[in-house]
Design goal:
GO cellular component, one term: mitochondrion
Keywords: Hydrolase, Magnesium, Manganese, Metal-binding
Radius of gyration: 20 Å
CATH class: Alpha Beta
Structural class: alpha+beta
CATH architecture: Alpha-Beta Complex
Cofactor: Mn(2+); Mg(2+)
Protein name: Nudix hydrolase domain-containing protein
Strand content: 15-25%
Distance between the termini: 34 Å
Number of domains: 1
Shape: globular
CATH topology: Nucleoside Triphosphate Pyrophosphohydrolase
GO molecular function: hydrolase activity, acting on acid anhydrides, in phosphorus-containing anhydrides; metal ion binding
Length: 333
Amino acid sequence: MPSKQKKPPAAPRPSSSVVLISPTNEILLLHRVKTSTSFASAHVFPGGNLSLQDGRCPPPEDVKRHEDASWYRNAAIRELFEESGILLAKDQSSGKMLAVREEERDKGRREIHQKKTTFSEWLQKQNTAAVPDIDNLIPFTRWVTPPNVPKRYTTQMYLYFLPLPLESDKSLLSEIPAEGEREEIQTPTSDGGVEIAEAQFLPASEWLRQAGQGEIILYPPQFVLLSLVSQFLDKGTRTAPAEELQQRRTQLIEFAHSSSPPWTEKCISPKVGKFTDDGRAIMKLDHPGPELQGTERRGEFDRVVFVRFKDGSSRELSMAWKKDVFPGNKSNI
């Protein structure tokens, strides 16, 4: 009897996510509803799949499908708005950030979710010269779902820094208000339970603490990026002067451009290297995924992630140096 042919892995869907950093260097996470088709009940960065309004992404067989580009950046800004209500758009002619009242933003989100309009159409109604603020997005790794998972994604992650408190007069959150008006600071909100139950800024270290205590669910990409960000943004206190907050941001940006390849270009498809005695998977991060096998794309060679997969979610995550877990091991990429 002929042997069964191995089914090829599903083509990863293009998607984007934003590690959004607040004026006090906290990170926005969204709590997905338990009925969500992806990452149900987990805490995730704002983001989602690309749509045609974001631009035309290369086809699955093209390796450029896995590169940072305007369509990924447009999707990141669009999904951030649709999921959290935070609008990052600017007037193309003046360069000023767009200021839209919360009531109008909420109305727009409802109409988008009801498919009465699209984000692009809604944005044009606010200002015919309005465009998503894609220039301030900083690439911060790409993650490709392992080939053994039925639903796969190629997700471009970005950093975006909201303005520091003392920069409010030239805020990226809104234009300078007219005389007598108070400047509005955008507060993240849920999408009414469509996909998001709650949207909240907290220090990266606090999100990690909650995950460690089993209070929230994080998946490896969110855990790794929060762990890296926390090393820089959570030094000292939240009430530090703006100069110190900016210094932490500068250190994070410098880190993002460090390593080989830099974190701005790393492409990571987690791969189980072995299991611990208590059943946790030890995931290597050095492989870029089967679609990029044979290219120059690389992942993270120095770190591994421990994780227990249970009932469709990930628990008990921790990160370690690869040399301590796989002594003498060389990557086979």
